[in-house]
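sry for the spam today, last one i promise. struct tokens for design, 347 residues
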């Protein structure tokens, strides 16, 4: 029998992108996004409170006050729930991907996946499998940079000095590969916290060790982070995939716990990166290689509904991300920005 209690849909009141790949968010937009209050319920019915049939000896739970329903309440509760979800996901390490880094594949190029703060999990295994199914013939490996201890997710996110050291280790891995396979394309794909590590690893590379691309999926790094050095270490640029629907992790979560670069507020994985004014930065010209790919409703057909983990959905990766990675691995010019958003099809 259908539940007669009314359902209340709580919707984040943030502003959606206008559909353009480089949709900009001003400082005032982000301030409004991070400070706007959610509308509280007007009555018990709005919250679906018990109206009849209360079990004997039990009392209905007290309704949250208006203050509890404010954004400050959600800022604390939603990120904690999200963190628990990541801990559960981290327990599902997924299957081996040894068949994706055979000598034959490694001779064609290398794609290094840097997972989020949950570490190696089914999310990044699905990402690797989606790339393979979508036509990426290069070697694919997962580099787990996280801390493998209880509570390690928060340590992985917040220990800036350690993360810089780990990024140096990723850089060493890239240089070892380049010595064995000179001239082959190397690409870094970082999801969530791994996006921050990917940027730091690119910055650590010497000027003669160029990456083909740096692909960021919902990166937990601040929008104002200076990408100029990382951009100079890439041939085709940085591809930042972001979604304004990623509220739990990259708006509330990074407002409470901070980003990989230790800032508090919405992340570039939710609102995109800021572009510097040309006169304010010597490296501003390098931002011509920054490609910002915003989530689009049509991506829902392939399992990505705008949330944090949708970027790793196997169907989405196969249809949207793999064609881009395959072209870059073959040293072909990247697809047009609008074509990237359309999954390789003409929009």
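last one done:
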């Amino acid at each position: 029998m259908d539940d007669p209690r009314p359902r209340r849909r709580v919707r984040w009141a943030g502003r959606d992108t206008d559909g353009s790949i480089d949709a900009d968010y001003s400082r005032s937009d982000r301030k409004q996004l991070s400070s706007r209050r959610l509308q509280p319920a007007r009555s018990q019915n709005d919250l679906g409170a018990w109206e009849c049939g209360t079990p004997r000896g039990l009392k209905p739970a007290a309704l949250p006050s208006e203050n509890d329903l404010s954004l400050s309440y959600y800022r604390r509760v939603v990120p904690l729930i999200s963190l628990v979800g990541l801990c559960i996901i981290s327990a599902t390490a997924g299957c081996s991907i040894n068949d994706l880094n055979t000598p034959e594949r490694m001779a064609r190029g290398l794609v290094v996946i840097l997972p989020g703060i949950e570490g190696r999990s089914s999310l990044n295994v699905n990402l690797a499998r989606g790339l393979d199914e979508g036509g990426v013939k290069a070697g694919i490996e997962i580099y787990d940079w996280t801390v493998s201890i209880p509570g390690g997710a928060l340590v992985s996110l917040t220990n800036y000095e350690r993360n810089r050291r780990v990024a140096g280790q990723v850089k060493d891995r890239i240089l070892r590969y380049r010595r064995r396979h000179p001239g082959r394309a190397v690409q870094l794909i970082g999801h969530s916290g791994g996006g921050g590590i990917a940027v730091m690893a690119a910055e650590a590379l010497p000027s003669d060790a160029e990456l083909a691309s740096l692909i960021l999926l919902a990166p937990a790094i601040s929008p104002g982070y200076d990408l100029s050095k990382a951009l100079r270490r890439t041939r085709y640029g940085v591809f930042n995939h972001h979604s304004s629907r990623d509220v739990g992790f990259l708006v509330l979560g990074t407002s409470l716990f901070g980003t990989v670069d230790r800032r508090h507020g919405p992340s570039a994985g939710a609102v995109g990166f800021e572009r510097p004014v040309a006169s304010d930065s010597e490296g501003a010209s390098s931002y011509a290689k920054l490609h910002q790919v915003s989530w689009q409703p049509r991506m829902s057909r392939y399992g990505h509904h705008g949330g944090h983990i949708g970027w790793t959905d196997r169907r989405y990766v196969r249809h949207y991300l793999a064609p881009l990675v395959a072209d870059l691995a073959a040293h072909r010019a990247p697809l047009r920005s609008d074509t990237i958003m359309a999954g390789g099809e003409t929009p």
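The domain at 87-340 is CATH 3.40.50.1820 (Rossmann fold). ok im logging off now
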